[in-house]
Amino acid sequence: EERVRAQEIIIRFTNEEQKVEARTKMQDVVRGLREGTEFAELAVRYSDALSAEKRGDLGWLKRGSLADKELEAQLFELKTGQSTRIYEKPDSFEIYRVQDHEKERTDPFQEVQKQIERKLKAQYVQEMRLAKLEELKDQAIVTTIFDEREEE
């Protein structure tokens, strides 16, 4: 499955005064990015998101896993190292950066052939064991101590 690894910087606000401050901070972030400052460094310095402790790292995101489909589409379109536009939400300004892409791929048959053979052999052995067990059960004559007492 296709995945993208991303970083985020989220600057939150709760009122108009804080919104003005948040916008100024986000402008500082954008200026820093243009001047070559590492996104991770800016995330630690400015982001209010929990991911700030991890340098803004969101980890690997699968296609279809984000609620914000517009953001997801942009993340999967961007090249490694590129940043999104600034998203203005009701309580935050957000910007994201793509760290890496992992395309969906199908393993070549040669790579999985041994795994398939092992699974099929294990399945065959299990089926043969169960068949032999049933055969032995059918042939067995089982008596218990309770059977002997009934005869007395």
Question: What secondary-structure arrangement, pairings included, does this model have?
Answer:
Elements (H helix, E strand, L loop, with lengths): L2 E10 L3 H19 L4 H8 L10 E6 L6 H9 L9 E3 L2 E11 L6 H31 L5 H7 L1
Antiparallel strand pairs: 1-2, 1-4, 3-4
Helix pairs in contact: 1-2
Distance from first to last alpha carbon: 71 Å
- The total tally of domains equals 2
How many DSSP helices? 5
Q: Count of DSSP E strands?
A: 4
- Major β-sheet strand ordering: 2-1-4-3
CATH-level-2 architecture of the largest domain: Roll
Q: Which strand-content bin applies to the residues?
A: 15-25%
Overall morphology: elongated
Uncertain runs with pLDDT below 50, 5 residues or more?
none
Derived from helix and strand composition plus strand pairing, the structural class reads alpha+beta
